[in-house]
Design goal:
heterodimer, A: Urease, subunit C, domain 1, TIM Barrel, seven-stranded mixed β-sheet, six-stranded mixed β-sheet, 19 strands, 30% helix, globular, B: TIM Barrel, 10 helices
């Protein structure tokens, strides 16, 4: 939905443009403002192959975009506009774990459990990471609080470009509740004994403590269902997780953390769980399949070990999950390929035995479904937002690159 | 008409309205107790004469009266004519006269007819309103920052105001007559700001804004809140509840002074303001020029910290773009030297001197909520003025005399051998 500010600014523009004529710097500013107010959002793009992520591949086809929406797709049709012809088109990529935040300023550490705190209030729309993601074909991201808390708070789905406020970039507010297992939430804490008094003299200091905090939070939420006086800040969010209205996304990298997360899911009957950075989830195939939890895989690392917990990440992890029928997505996070973090992951997984189609789904439609935004983004279909990636060759091939990006119909990276 | 130089190097030339006044040796430098036929008491004259002949101690004149007492200026009419008079709204008039009555401006004009018997002083140089700074770092850090609690809506910085400090008299000597005192940005809510004069102990406003910090300093990871998420959530909750100062903020009675340095902090402030229909000033938003459209639409005023010698090109370009963009702005006071150096840096980038003069006078006064008292030379406003040896923004100019509430409170010392 368009913010009313757009309309107001547009009305103000002619008057302010006259004032800008005073200085060259200001003039450039005015032109910049005009450009961002009224971008062209209607295009016709042609490609040798269009990968729609619905299972369909269109050879020598076109995608027509009007006012930011996809209006027509097909093999025959209009010619490409102004040389807008590329080797391939895919939907815009979606990263569920890009780790775009303001560090510890994005997680409220005054309490270990803060389910009602919103990371949307602690993001920088000007962060270079957004621009970098956008240029590598990532058009939608889920931004979450860093994993310094047990329950960190509410994550937000954002488009990676456009207006320079978080509010105007939001595709879905309060999309998932974010938390963490493993060593991350306890790493700064220490017992008070024989140490200087400190804010971080507190639980949890171990994995056991982290698990205890999780169970206590949900136990308290269960109690609060019966006893209104037992309510606490964030209980609504925990209830929403228990009722399946809000997905719970937890960082669980190593096997023991995956197991702890699934035990929690089963003990408190949490319908929608997303295991983030779970490179070792495949080590518990039965539990994983039984639980129905989805998995977000970390980016590949040359050492085979990922993240602070050093979970093993094999080339064939994605292929194994695919065979098990587990829902999974890729993430860019702290990937080695700093300018192509997410876009490189499907290629590595394909080398590990994953099919192209499954790899494509894992960066487009699957993450869209997990976030509940698949009615808007994630595939190339008529009526969806025109978030498109234009490729120089077959997507995810090592020799191919992202040469163009449309974000909500705006050609933010021009292939010409 | 007899023109007489009072000292060999004096800038003040006295043009007596009548030949009789020329016989009064002290006329022209002190407004107190002077007029044509009826000079002040001998004591006053002696005091004036001492200042007149080049005192080595150019200190601010202070009264023993409480802050609310009337100004020290003479009760009768006085007129000052200068080569150029800056009005404070960006305009300036050559050869204009300022007529003061009881320490306040009664009229300003080029061919102003002054009532008969009014002493007219003719001053060489530019007469401008005293600078008004909508934020300052004058008070000691431990007076501005209360580390016991992050939220202090009931605090008031006016209790930390001490008039006889070197910082204030230094500001006065640099041509600053009014400053805003603010709580530090380490507190999320630091309390009420205060607006004071740099001479005369007068408090213009004991609570111009509620000081709120959205900067990184406010999210200390040794106490609640440690994050912007927690900070915004708590502020929202307090504003929704609307108790005490928060209620005044919500009702539009008390504007906010918000520390917002990075661009995302500015966005957060604007969004919070939009949500609750509140406005105020943004302190330290050095890249506001890159968010001009957002800020113009929002109605906030930016108070720039003076960029020092090491300021980045990007920051200066952004400040220049903002200044040229027509949105209101003002400056913080950090040191006497930085202020006009900052203006010079922006002048070099093409910002008009009129725009900068406005920001330093009425712009600062409006941002500080005292635009009806100071910042312009206009009927009814306080006679706070600075006589500059040349254009106030010319770095080679210097303040030669400072008047607060119509009284001469500082006169620049004569340096032997120096050409002023």
């Amino acid at each position: 939905m368009k913010h009313p500010m757009h309309a107001i600014s547009r009305l103000l523009l002619p008057a302010s443009a006259a004032l800008f004529a005073l200085a060259p710097a200001a003039l450039a500013q005015a032109e910049g403002a005009k450009k961002s107010e009224e971008p062209k959002r209607s295009w016709t793009v042609r490609a040798d192959r269009i990968y729609t992520a619905t299972g369909q591949v269109i050879e020598n086809g076109f995608v027509a975009v009007v006012d930011g929406r996809i209006t027509a797709i097909g093999p025959a049709g209009p010619g490409a506009e102004d040389g807008l012809r590329v080797a391939a088109i895919t939907p815009g990529l979606i990263d569920l774990s890009p780790a775009i935040d303001l560090g510890t300023n994005s997680v409220e550490q005054s309490d270990e459990v803060t389910p009602n705190v919103r990371v949307a209030d602690a993001l920088d729309p000007f962060a270079l990471a957004f621009e970098r993601a956008l240029r590598s074909g990532v058009t939608t991201v889920l931004c979450s609080p860093p994993d310094d808390n047990v329950v960190g708070g509410l994550s937000v789905v954002l488009q990676t470009g456009g207006a320079a406020t978080i509010a105007e970039r939001t595709l879905k507010a309060d999309a998932v509740l974010r938390g963490a297992f493993g060593s991350q939430p306890s790493r700064r804490n220490s017992p008070a004994f024989l140490r200087p008094r400190d804010f971080f003299n507190r639980r949890p200091t171990t994995r056991m403590g982290v698990e205890w905090e999780w169970r206590k939070a949900f136990y308290d939420a269960v109690v609060a269902r019966q006893d209104k006086d037992a309510a606490f800040p964030g209980v609504e969010q925990l209830h929403a997780v228990m009722d399946g209205k809000l997905p719970l996304m937890v960082h669980a990298n190593a096997t023991q953390d995956v197991r702890t997360a699934i035990y929690l899911k089963e003990e408190f009957n949490l319908p929608r769980m997303i295991l983030d950075q779970s490179s070792e989830a495949w080590k518990e195939p039965e539990m994983l399949v039984r639980s129905g939890a989805a998995v977000v895989l970390p980016p590949f690392a040359w050492t085979g070990r990922v993240g602070a917990d050093g979970g093993f990440h094999a080339w064939n992890t994605a292929a194994t999950l695919d065979e098990l029928g587990v829902t999974f997505a890729f993430s860019g996070r702290d990937g080695l390929d700093v300018d192509d973090r997410l876009a490189m992951q499907p290629g590595y997984a394909i080398r590990g035995g994953l099919s192209f189609e499954s790899a494509l789904r894992a960066v487009t439609v699957t993450p869209a479904q997990l976030l509940g935004v698949d009615d808007v983004v994630g595939t190339i279909e008529v009526g969806k937002r025109a978030d498109l990636v234009l490729w120089s060759g077959k997507p995810f091939d090592f020799t191919s690159s992202v040469v163009g990006v449309l974000l909500n119909g705006e050609l933010v990276v021009d292939p010409r | 008409m007899i023109e007489r130089l009072l000292t060999a190097t004096a800038l003040f030339a006295v043009l007596a309205a009548t030949p009789t006044s020329a016989a009064t040796p002290t006329v022209g430098l002190a407004l107190r107790g002077e007029s044509n036929g009826a000079a002040g008491s001998d004591a006053a004259r002696t005091e004036t004469a001492r200042v007149e002949t080049g005192s080595e101690r150019p200190v601010a004149v202070e009264t023993e009266a409480p802050p609310t007492a009337p100004p020290t200026a003479a009760r009768e009419l006085v007129a000052l004519r200068a080569d150029v008079v800056h009005l404070g709204d960006g305009r300036s008039v050559e050869g204009a006269t300022v007529l003061l009555e009881n320490g306040r401006v009664r009229a300003v004009g080029k061919d102003l007819a002054v009532p008969e018997g009014t002493p007219v002083q003719v001053l060489k140089g530019h007469l401008a309103p005293g600078f008004v700074l909508a934020n300052s770092y004058l008070l000691p850090g431990n007076e501005r920052f209360d580390s016991t609690r992050a939220f202090l809506p009931d605090a008031s910085i006016v209790h930390a105001f001490r008039a006889d400090t070197e910082g204030l008299s230094k500001a006065l000597r640099a041509g600053v007559t009014t400053v805003l005192l603010s709580p530090a940005e380490n507190n999320v809510v630091g309390g009420r700001t205060a607006v004071v004069k740099t001479a005369g102990k007068r408090v213009l406003s004991p609570g111009a804004h509620l000081s709120v910090s959205l900067s990184t300093a406010a999210v200390d990871d040794r106490r609640y809140p440690t994050s912007f998420s927690g900070l915004i959530a708590e502020l929202r909750q307090q504003l929704v509840a609307g108790e005490g100062a928060y209620g005044e903020v919500k009702g539009g009675k008390l504007p906010l002074l918000v520390y917002a340095r990075d661009r995302h902090q500015v966005v957060r402030a604007v969004e919070l303001g939009r949500e609750f229909g509140i406005r105020g000033v943004l302190v330290g938003a050095s890249l506001a020029g890159e968010q001009l459209a957002l800020l113009k639409e929002s109605g906030w005023t930016v108070v720039f910290d003076t960029p020092g010698a090491g300021a980045s090109e990007r920051m200066l370009d952004a400040m220049a773009a903002y200044a040229a963009g027509g949105a209101p702005f003002a400056f913080s006071y950090s040191s006497a030297d930085d202020l006009r150096f900052a203006a010079a840096q922006l002048l070099r980038r093409g910002v008009s001197p009129d725009v900068l003069m406005r920001a330093l006078t009425s712009g600062g006064a409006n941002a500080a909520g005292v635009g009806a008292n100071v910042g312009r030379l206009e009927r009814g406003l306080d006679g706070d003025m600075v006589l500059w040896s040349g254009h106030p923004l010319e770095l080679t100019s210097s303040p030669r005399a400072v008047y607060v509430d119509g009284a001469l409170v500082h006169r620049a010392p004569q340096i032997p051998g120096a050409a002023h």
